[in-house]
Amino acid sequence: MTLVLATTEPGEAEIFASLQGEGPAVGRPSVFVRLSRCNLACTWCDTAYTWRFEGDNRPHRDAATFDRRVNQVSMSEEDAAARIAALGPERLVITGGEPLLQGAALARMVGQLPAMHVEIETNGTVAPHPALDPLVHQYNVSPKLAHSGNPAELALVPERLAGWAAEPRTFFKFVVSSQSDLAEIERLQSDHAIPGERLFVMPEGTESDTLRARSAWLAEAALGRGWRFTDRLHIHLYGDTRGT
Question: With respect to CATH, is domain 2-238 assigned 3.50.50.60?
């Protein structure tokens, strides 16, 4: 059986060691695995090479499309597990794309790893596979707000949001572009009983200057609402590059 992964360069799966740049584990050494394919299409997505292949007309602000043969690679679960184990850090972050689309294969891969702290970054629309869920220590759920360009009926599934909110392993991370996004987050928090101590807000942006400008008012908004704030450390350290 195989996993479908994104690439750092043609034929090279995007499996790498770095510092976690976002959320509750920011700054921690981690191994990252970036899977390909997504069921949503955010207009500002910074990993559009995982889903916006030639022929995909879903909107994106850059209007760029990517050659699937260059930007997607298949790898056996055994080979992926071996590469992860060889990199060293004991924290694994599985991201995408939308990784839970490949839940069964991920369960088989994680089952072959030595003991690791396993995090999954997800848009929150897909339920965890029953074989994968017991192997996961932390879910980083990033529901997509209206400014992402996704229809709410696809991106904000009420039963899924309520399920994540009731799951103590879940941390929510909302990507924020403007102050008008804050009211939408407040509504979602109220409607789905999302605990403030597990709710992060993060500025949208792929350049340090943009992140700093948005952080100035977003940090104050978080402070006043009992939310947590997260920056994008990897952007400041490495820029908007693959494999970081």
Answer: no
